[in-house]
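Technical annex B. To support the medicinal chemistry partners, we prepared a structural model of the target in complex with thymidine-5'-phosphate, based solely on the information shown next.
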Amino acid sequence: MRKMIELYRGKTKTLYSTDEPDVLVLEFRDDISALDGKRVDQLNRKGFINNKLNYFIMSKLQKAGVQTQIKELYSHDSTLVKNLKMVPLEFVLRNRAAGSLVKRLGIKEGTPLSPPVFDLFFKNDGKHDPMVNSSYCKTFGWVSEHDLSRMREITFQSNDILSTLFSERGLILVDFKLEFGIFQNEVILGDEFSPDSARLWDQKTLNKMDKDLYRQNQVGLIEAYEEVANRLGVNLN
Ligand code: TMP
């Protein structure tokens, strides 16, 4: 398969067309961003690590029955994916209080949330990804009611699969964000799952092993991502 032209450049990933219209190349760059893209830096090896981590986690979800966009690894920092029609929403699930939930409600960071809290955000950096709900989706036609409920269901299903996977490797899946698209009339999990889009804490020390290290100006992000990969058994050679 030949990588052709750049179709879309996001904050940390780039999509390229290929010689097959239904297949794209998803490239993970070394960029890292916060504050809706106002703060951007480069971290050597991050694209490579996240490409491998994303492929590993998406493969686990796929094997457990979640339909994902991934097809096969394409290079050290890119993967062949299905060409989805993306829905402009972020599906967030929280097993413990952290991040914007702590800010919004004043709950102590780390408080277990049972059942997990589900949040929906509209993807719009200019408006800081505002929180929305199913009524907005209907009025603005972002996604059908049927597909929205399927996406929500897959978000909870993914949480069950991944909470177990991480917990077996000594990690707490604090929260995460998923994005979905439509391919041949079916709901498919798209975008990525990596420590950029999830919070992962060490079970014993509660040390952060995700993008909060960057958001909070701490050192050791690449080492933490590598440790996540090592614990999962992802081959980084
Ligand atoms: P939040 O606490 O900032 O709402 O984030 C919840 C989870 O979703 C956290 O794991 C980070 C992830 N997330 C993204 O990956 N991208 C985003 O744009 C947002 C708002 C959250």
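Notes passed to the chemistry partners:
The two ends are 23 Å apart (CA to CA).
The chain has a mean pLDDT of 97.
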